[in-house]
Design brief:
This protein is of the alpha+beta class. It has one domain: 4-Layer Sandwich (Glutamine Phosphoribosylpyrophosphate, subunit 1, domain 1), CATH 3.60.20. The protein contains five helices and nine strands; from the N terminus they run E-E-E-E-H-H-E-E-E-E-H-H-E-H. Strand 3 and strand 4 form a beta hairpin.
Amino acid sequence: MVALMCAEAVILGTNSKDYQIYSLGDRIFCCAPSTGIERGIMLEISNQVECQYRERGIKPTMDQVRDMLARKYENVSSENVLLVGQDRHGPHIYAMKGIGIPQTLIYAAKGKGRDDIIGYLMHNWKKSLNLAQAEQLVRTCLLVGENDYVNMCVIYKEKETWAKAVPQLEPVAIMAYDTESAFDDMTSMGSNLSN
């Protein structure tokens, strides 16, 4: 599995059917094993995020979801887990390292071929990559080896609406309203309908 940032998005992908990309919240995704304890952890975190939003109307930030994930992995090895997303603080990539310790990165690789992929990214990743170049880089990284399966998730960067002030509303024209003639109009409409 591989994750990387580019000028327009954060991309997460896997080339193994043993891994699944889980949606953990609004614009937050995690790639982890599709069976066993990891699947249970991902489903539990997804439910916690959904309940928090439903009950309090609060969308958790990436840091909050990262902390939930770290707590769940306190006693479980998490060598093959990548968390990516976008919130009001910008794009994020976290790789779980060891037991419950997340590491912040600009690109990451886990699983089979990890060392080869990291080496390839070190030579080919640039901060200025556009989306098409970044997608191709992820596909190239994931096709290292015998796999022809690729599952990819692209989280586009949000427009910078968080920092902007509330837009000014256009003035509304206020019209005089004659309640007697409005009542007469409604009465005549009612009598026309009953005929």
